[in-house]
Amino acid sequence: MAKRLLLILSVLTFTAGMTACNTMKGFGQDVERGGEKIQRGSDDARK
Question: What residue range is the signal peptide (predicted)?
Answer without folding.
Answer: 1-20
